[in-house]
Structures are given as C-alpha cells and as structure tokens.
Amino acid sequence: MKIKIKNKYIGKQEPCFIIAELSANHLQKFELAVDTIKAAKEAGADAIKLQTYTPDTITIDSDNEYFKIRGTLWEGKTLYDLYKEAYTPWEWQPKLQKLAEELNLIFFSSAFDKTAVDFLENLNVPAYKIASFEITDIPLIEYIASKGKLIIMSTGIATLADIEEAVNACKRMGNEQVILLKCTSAYPAPIEEANLLTISNMSETFGKIVGLSDHTLGSTVAIASIALGAKVIEKHFILDRNLGGPDAAFSMEPAEFKEMVKSVRDVEKALGKFSYEISEKVEKSRVFARSLFVVKDIKAGELISEENVKSIRPGYGIHPKYLKEIIGKKIRKDVNKGTPFGWGLIG
After folding, report:
1. Which of 78, 144, 242, 264 is the most exposed place for a label (fewest CB within 10 A)?
2. What is the pLDDT of residue 273?
3. Domains plus CATH for the chain?
C-alpha cells in the first residue's frame, strides 16, 4: 500500500514523509515566511504545509464566553483575535508555493472551508490536510474528497466513531487516498498522552497508512513513532522560538528538526527487514563465537574429558553441541593446549 504525492511515495516500504508546518511562525512577515521555508528545506523536510483560512472563514468576531479561550497557551484571547494573529495571508501563498517548488519541497495546506479549497485548487496543490478540529466537519471533508487529491487527516480530537465517519465521507466521494495522523491536540502535548501504540491499531482498523502529527516538545515521540509504523511525521517549524508567536512554544528550531530527521532516517535503517541472514560483517565476527578447544596437553591414547576439552572462544573448533558426544573417547595423537578440536583427533 502506497500513495504518490508529486515525486514521492508514502507507504509501508517507503521512507517516512516529513512535513514542516509553517503555521503562524511567520509572525505576519513575508520575508520571515520565506526564510523559514528555506530553513525547513535545509533541515531535511520533504514538504512545507501552510494553513489556509482567515479569521472570518474559521470563526466569528465575538468576545462572548463561547469564543474565549481557556486552559491553553492562548488563555484569555478570543478565537477571532488568535486567528487574526496566526493566519497566513492568502496573497502570500502562491509566492510561497513557487519558492517551495523551486526548493523541491512539496507544498500543500490545511483547508478550513470551501473558499479555501477553491483557492487551493487554483494553486493545484497535490494534497489537502484536514486539521484535527475539522475532522467532524463532514460537509467540508466531502468537498475536499471530491477533488480527488490525497487527504492527510489529523485525529487529535476525534473518537473512533469520528474517524470512521470522516473516512467514510471520503469513501462516499470515491476518494480512498486517505492518510491518518495520530495526534494529541494539546499545545504542547504531554509526552505521556502520545499513546503511540494507537498508530499500529489505527492502521489495522482502517486499512490506511498512518503517521503522526506531533505537538510534544522535542523529537522523542516522533522518532519512536517510526518503530511503530508511522510513515508521515508533521512538526511545527520555527526559525527561533525566541521570536515568539502563537505556536512558538511547541515548534522545532532548524537544528532540532535536522537532528530529528537524521534520527528518523537512522531508525529506518535500523528497522531494516525481517531477516535471519548473517551479513558479511557479522560472518566475520562469528570467528569469535565459542567452539571446542583442547585446553590441556593430551597424550595419544588419553581419554577426552571436560578438563582437557572445553567450549571457549574463538570459533575454530567443532560446534560446542558435540561436547557430550566426544567425552570419554580416546585421542588419536598427542595434542597441544590451544588446538582447535576436530573430528580427526579422535582415535
């Protein structure tokens, strides 16, 4: 099972697809967005992802209690004010797409309403992201699915039933190109709430490629996810956390991201394949395995005992499993201590 996105494949036998999320880390400065995308490429990202919304397409301008944020990094702000600060101006996005493609980065975005989908269709993006908080917006998911593009769907606030309904919505529209991302929608997310074991279960349950959208601090969770089958990793990316901004606290700086990418690639190498074959290098090491050796001088006609023949390193004698078989047999000739024991020494 694999899915193509531009010039890359995502699938069980493919390298993990690593996404740098620009999110709000441009601080409403176009040149900062440009520099961040360039740094993401340098840090080893396969793709850069934006978010396509305006404050008015995602919420309304209201300060009543329903629209005030509680219990998060953005305590006390209204949703409208947060999104006004965080959104990526739409007029930037074609320019950022052009830059990304010149850098050989795959460019796509999260669409938060139909107008965003239409806008991104004009850019001919190769995929759509569905953010965790939009996974229950079935009409939006159906509209996105109808475009026939790859859909990468975060599941941070979703129940099992929510995920099933969203996947079925795509299926109804004839779109089976869905990748699910295990996600914990807390900012930053506690490491003990990552629940990475869900990755393999999600893959089995839905028969889909599964990855990770990670909001924990550091790279431990992302790296560990590879061993559990994650084929996509998404992390928020920032040039410098000291710049501040809505997402700075849980975003990765370039050096951290680069080290994470290296660790992911190392883990992929280490996972390798199911194999009991011995490599050439290991074969050379087998010489230091145990075998039977003469450990005391033995005269011709003497009996072999556990005192004069033992299982020791290295591996030039016969297999240790034959020790019981040779005990009590006569030595055919004089043998010096340190001689590998072979069948030809038995009289």
Report:
1. 242
2. 86
3. 11-271 (3.20.20.70), 280-345 (3.90.1210.10)
